[in-house]
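Pair request: fold both.
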Amino acid sequence: MRYVVGPAAELPPGSSTVVYPDKVKSGIGVFNVNGEFYALKNTCPHMGGPLCKGTVRGTSAAEVTPDGQPEVRWERAGEIVSCPWHHWEFEIATGRTIFSSRQRVRGYPVSVVPADVLERLEKGVETVPVSVEDATIVIDI
């Protein structure tokens, strides 16, 4: 099943939206991370919170400097979503936690297709790779 999210131009880099296809009652978050589109189920595996309505941000990483001092740096800005309930953090690109855990969020394939190809896709017509200008975001569910 395909679900049309909307024009790619309406989801610029750094933005996200939550859509509600019939088969996924909790919704699916669609994220634009540096021009790449990703889709995650809007359910945190920890306690079922609305993950994709959380803050999109980076994360902190600790390291020891050459002189032996601890230092914390901010990294991966815009690549992490934090659940609004308990602040568990997940990589948007993979759905995996950023800490050691087997927990992950289901991801969905995302296609960005030219608007004129969308009608043919919906009819099941075979297509070939094309360049993308005015495009529409589509999730395969």
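--- second member of the pair ---
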Amino acid sequence: MPGADRSILITGARAPVALHLARLFHGAGHRVVLADTPARPIAATSKACARYHRLPPPRFARQDYAGTVEALIRAEGIDLVIPTCEEVFYLALAWRGGAMPAKVFAPAIELLAEVHNKHAFIRLAERLGLEVPETALLNSRDDIEAIRNRSRVLVFKPAWSRFASHVLLRPPPQALDFVTPSPATPWVAQHFVDGEEISAYAVAREGRIKGLALYRSLYRAGTGAGIFFERVEDDAARELVERIVAGTSWTGQISFDLMREPSGRVLPLECNPRAVSGLHFFRDPARFVDAVLGEGPEVAPDVTAPQTVRLAMWIYGLPAALRSGGLAQFRKAMHESQELLDWPGDSAPVRAQWPALAEIAGVAWRERISLQAASTRDIEWNGPD
């Protein structure tokens, strides 16, 4: 395999996707170093991890973060850095001067920022000739007032956000009294699209898709991140992803929230320029890594069973099932799905969920925020300063 035995740095070690990437690259013969801010991330306990490094929180110590990453790269002989979460923005900023001694598997900060902004992304898709939902940028209370009487057919959300945080779905007009957009913290108002939501995860090189998984989330942590994933196939969704990847010459990981209307038309809603849970549908290390780093053909997902994190299902899925009367469906889902943290000969990360959860819970308690907000508080990127 081209470039075997390279030293790879994977950041965002708190995330199951970082653990999964570590296992894939380790399984393909590479040395994997992991890094993140927490003391006890799940991926650090994996047999795929040669060494774990703690980093300063990039959101609050950007320069220290960049300097520590550079020192780590030099000390460990890193050839390639692969971000997994929103630290990708801070890494892209650190790489902007071109002096870093390794490559980063991500586009430049300007493109990352454009697709992360929920209004700019829709305008980009529109320029690429894609059909898009009506989407307006809100920079002031005057902008809110101009569309207040249409609130029941719109979705309101911050332009820079994640996990559906602060989303108002077809709200009554009075709910907009508490929305205070500004040029520094803009919102968007997007026409509500009825249909079936599709999530897309892609990995690409120079505008070519090297791997793509389409899936839907049947259970979520509240209204945000999915915790139970089922694969789907959709030609229109694939074409949409292909056109955006090609039109931006994308290199790195990229993910989309799409909506398939009853007619079969697929519209883009928003973009996340990072790894998401569709990655878990790839489990063949050699084929995946050869597609990403070598000259191998596009790799197709090789997992068909639904994937889940069982601990999250007990915490979020079971209460939701009890509230909705869907206990039988919950039992069926738990029976038919695979634990996405499971991996042959590498059981420690499953047990490591508990100390990792305790650390996040400590942040949530100290900051008086939700567990979900605490899980990304130190790496969130909410637009240029």
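Observation on the second member. Residues 196-344 form a domain with the D-amino Acid Aminotransferase; Chain A, domain 1 fold (CATH 3.30.470.20).
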